[in-house]
Amino acid sequence: MKLSKYAYNIKINNKLGAYYSVLSRRYVTYDYSKREKYKEIVEHLNKSQYTPEEVNFIRELHKYGIIVDEKTNEEAYLKYKENAARFRDQVLRITVFVTTGCNFRCTYCTQCHTHTRMTDETKNSLIKYIENVSLQKKRIEIVWFGGEPLVEFQAIIDILSKAKSLCGSNGCSLVSYAVTNGYLLTKDRIEKMKEVGFEALQITVDINKKIHDSQRVKADGSGTYDRVVGNLIMAVENGINVTLRMNIAGPISSSDLDVLRKINPRLRNNIWVDIANVFQNEKNSTYPLLKKAIKMKYSYGGRFNNYSGCTTCGPNSMVVNTNGDILFCSNADELSGIGVLNSKGIPAYKNEMDYDINISRSLTDIDECRNCPELPLCLGRCYKALLPGGDGGCLGKRANGMSVEETAKLDYFYDLEKGAI
């Protein structure tokens, strides 16, 4: 037996230590006052005799992949996990730019909001494409993107009404999500969205009223916090799950999280909190903020590794622009127009072989990443960096700014709060 290359020995608190695997995201705790004793066990795994206590500890370590058999190829297993997640051929995710226009002018937004709408030709091509692939897939997921997608609310409903009927006839489920600022939601709109298969929304509220209203403003410069938070609450009350996205651009105290206190505790289990550095060159840790959210009974989607990477670029993903262009991803303007969705609903790529090669690239192909013990935490990062001309190398800490030790402690705290330990 040997210690996994993805294992860490960390301190949970003054009473507990833990051996933790970033691959399995599991841990085995021990009495921290006896740290040297347990360290000795792990450093001498192949001795001839063990005490019953040592045997039980080793069995637990092996169960969670913290120690592995001598011949186990962990890099190959990690590659398998990535492939299994990315090449799920029964599920297709389509990201649709229904408009590039937006009613907000967020201070950190990099998009140019020229108000282009999805053309009728593109709508028809998209519906035809969904009809075609519904004969092959068990599930189609559509993510509505922009700009602000709800600016073109009726177009979304029209497309989904037709597509839902076609998918139902072919035995394929169709569900939708939207990345929205939340300002244009109404109760009537939420009911219509549920009728055509909406399951969830991602809505951004930046920390508290003061910060949000200084960053996420309307085109006329006025604040949006009160209305967005009210609409978020209304959505959850009416059966829509919400990912509450919070962007930070500097050190933030957990005491500043006013938006979390504003939401009724009975709704919090249906709200997933996602906090990240809006600027990737800043690495402020979100650990205390996420810990606060978990303590307040919000859901946390980061408990398990995301091996599939970004959902907009992959073997079973597609991004469609307002004019029918197929984009490599939703955030790479220089990679626009790699193909087009034609009138028959068939993707026509300029160079399909190059496209297939590019979407199959992996961090495991890079020596620096393949040899890094943090790799299992990073496979979900942006794949644009792997393309020719991309930055390629390590971005340091992930967007949540957390170290491995903080990730482990948050996993332990989440399980503790959920009653799993």
Amino- and carboxy-terminal Cα gap: 27 Å
Low-confidence parts: none
Number of strands: 15
Which superfamily, in CATH terms, is the homologous superfamily of the largest domain?
A: Aldolase class I
Shape: globular
Output the CATH class name of the largest domain: Alpha Beta
What Rg is obtained from the alpha carbons, in whole angstroms?
Answer: 23 Å
Beta fraction of the residues? 15-25%
Describe the structure in your own words:
This protein is of the alpha/beta class and 421 residues long. The protein folds into three domains: 71 residues, no CATH class; 160 residues, Aldolase class I (TIM Barrel, Alpha-Beta Barrel), CATH 3.20.20.70; 70 residues, no CATH class. It has 14 helices and 15 strands. The strands form three sheets. A ten-stranded mixed β-sheet has the order 11-10-9-8-7-6-12-13-14-15. Helix 4 runs parallel beside helix 5.
Q: Which helices and strands occur, and which strands form pairs?
A:
Layout: E1 2-3, E2 7-11, E3 16-21, E4 27-31, H1 35-43, H2 52-63, E5 67-68, H3 74-86, E6 91-97, H4 120-133, E7 139-145, H5 153-169, E8 173-180, H6 187-195, E9 198-204, H7 209-215, H8 225-237, E10 241-248, H9 258-262, E11 271-277, H10 287-295, E12 317-320, E13 325-327, E14 339-341, E15 347-349, H11 352-359, H12 367-370, H13 375-378, H14 404-417
Parallel strand pairs: 6-7, 6-12, 7-8, 8-9, 9-10, 10-11
Antiparallel strand pairs: 1-5, 2-3, 3-4, 12-13, 13-14, 14-15
